Amino acid sequence: MEITTETVSTNSRMRQYISEGAGSGVIVSKDGYIVTNNHVIDGASKITVKTTDKKSYTAKLIGKDVKTDLAVLKIEDSDLTTAVYGDSSKLVVGELAVAIGNPLGELGGTVTEGIISALNRDVVIDGQTMNLLQTSAAINPGNSGGGLFNEYGELIGIVNAKSSGSGIEGLGFAIRINTVIDIVDSIIDYGYVQGRIDTGLNLIDILDSQTARRYRVQSTGVYILKQAKA
């Protein structure tokens, strides 16, 4: 499944503009729940998804979890074809791994194959260490949020990262499906992940004077943007 996003940003002259992003997702219920990465939809003002039969939907964000980089979306439809969950605890190094996604944001439905290269790889992403599956299946920008499948077509992971650089190939990473299931079920049921400490505050880190002027504060620093209602 293809995901495209629109994010409203403000430039140095206080003029707003829309930037676009792209990623992938996986349908996990017949009534339209979709799992993707949090970083794919983070900050988006509009989320559009397109299925393999070329139907387009405006998606609603149900909830997200920064710690695991997962998010759940919802589209209005019924009797959709869903992914079949596998069991990531039974994976072994060397078995077939197939990634399906939307590389470059314009090649939806692309299938690449490789193997499971490692089962417990600690990877630092945006300053946070995550323990992930490693695969040699080709992963490119736009694949984030897409599915990693085994030889039986079962969903075993959600792709969320790749290593890039000159001469680097075959280093892709995915969140284990057993982790994904627990997080997604909690978000669908409650809108958030149970058991996580939440201050109920939305914070913003103001790093420069231009942003400070936009929010009408005197200096840089961390400010409370919004307090959740009790």
Number of helices: 3
Give the SSE string.
Answer: EEEEHEEEEEEEEEEEHEHE
Going by CATH, the architecture of the domain at 84-182 would be Beta Barrel
Strand content: over 45%
- How many strand units? 17
Question: Multimeric state of these chains?
Answer: single chain
Q: Major sheet: order of its strands?
A: 10-11-12-15-14-13
Task: Tell me what the structure shows.
This protein is mostly beta strands and 230 residues long. The protein has a domain at 84-182: Thrombin, subunit H (Beta Barrel), CATH 2.40.10.10. The chain contains 3 helices and 17 strands. The chain has helices at residues 38-41, 177-190, 209-214; strands at 2-10, 16-24, 26-27, 33-36, 46-50, 56-58, 60-65, 70-74, 84-85, 96-101, 110-125, 128-135, 147-149, 154-162, 172-176, 201-206, 221-227. Strands 10-11-12-15-14-13 form a 6-stranded antiparallel barrel. A 4-stranded antiparallel sheet has the order 2-1-5-6, with no helix packed on it. It is globular and about 60 Å long. The mean pLDDT is 87.
